[in-house]
Amino acid sequence: MKLFYRHFGEGQPLIILHGIFGISDNWVTLGKRLAEKFSVYIPDMRNHGQSPHSPTFNYLAMSDDLLEFMEDHQIEKSLLIGHSMGGKVAMTFTLEHPEKVEKLVIVDISPRKYPGRNVHFDMISAMMAVDFDSVTTRDEVERQMELSIPDKRIRLFVMKNLYRKTKHAFDWRLNLPAISTNMDYVFDGVNSDAEFNGPVLFIKGGKSDYISAEDLPLIHKNFPTARVQTIAGASHWVHADSPTELCRLFSQFLGKECTVADSGIE
User: Is residue 156 domain-shared with residue 215, that is, in the same domain?
Assistant: First the structure.
């Protein structure tokens, strides 16, 4: 599958994989900071953003997409960053193709199987329930989703997927039927006995429960060298809550300073 992508900078290749319901746009700010030192690629995953749609939606398929992406762009070996679902794709890919990964960064996800989370099903239900025949503005779309998604921040995150398909009509870029049908695969674990012995960093949001102390044995089973660092005060959406601190951790781990906006954080 030929993925849509954004590209910034020159130098050593670095690929960033977004999470469920995300798009490459979510990582552009951090991608541009990293592009001061790296050649940064941010693809839209299948069934997301401007990438093609498919009824097949699981980590093995998305790992194959990443391999094809690297081959198409003649990337022999890359630094790899993945958030949430993108982190599961990154882990799967790294364990399948360890020779293709220089360093691996996983943002707020572990290899384990997760129970279904209401917030994800609420997002799907809210998006599928929008009556596009009765709306003419983005505000009207948002108002239709208020009861199902009371958190404005999550609504705005979801609405990143909204686009105007004609002058007078909106639609979702997401392949909602395929995502909804395959959500069990999204919550599935990374099932592999393989090991990756290269450098690995897991970054946990301090307010998030996606990585717990109980996950450490499983993390070290597949990634023996992995270490975990926490960003205090950050939720699961670490890149939105603490982009400057996240950039600092990326820089330290990747060994090259990336551009950091002044935030007053020492």
Answer: no
**236 in catalytic set:** yes
Name residues whose C-beta falls within 8 Å of residue 214's C-beta, 6 or more positions apart in sequence. none
Is 81 in the same domain as 156? no
Task: Tell me the chain's radius of gyration from C-alpha atoms.
Answer: 18
Q: Which domain holds residue 207?
A: 5-114+189-254
Does 227 fall in a domain? yes
Q: Is the pTM higher than 0.85? A: yes
Shared domain check, 151 and 59: no
Render each residue's pLDDT in the chain as its tens digit; 266 residues: 999 999 999 999 999 999 999 999 999 999 999 999 999 999 999 999 999 999 999 999 999 999 999 999 999 999 999 999 999 999 999 999 999 999 999 999 999 999 877 788 888 999 999 999 999 999 999 999 998 889 888 888 899 999 999 888 999 999 999 999 999 999 999 999 999 999 999 999 999 999 999 999 999 999 999 999 999 999 999 998 999 999 999 999 998 776 554 332 22
Please pick, among 18, 83, 236, 239, the residue that the annotation labels catalytic.
236
| Dihedrals phi, psi of 43, to nearest 5 degrees | -85, 155
How many Cα atoms occupy the beta-carbon half-sphere of 141 within 13 Å?
Answer: 20
Strands 162-166 and 200-205 turn out to be unpaired
Q: In a 10 Å sphere around its CB, with 0-12 CB exposed, 13-18 middle and 19+ buried, how is residue 31 labelled?
A: buried
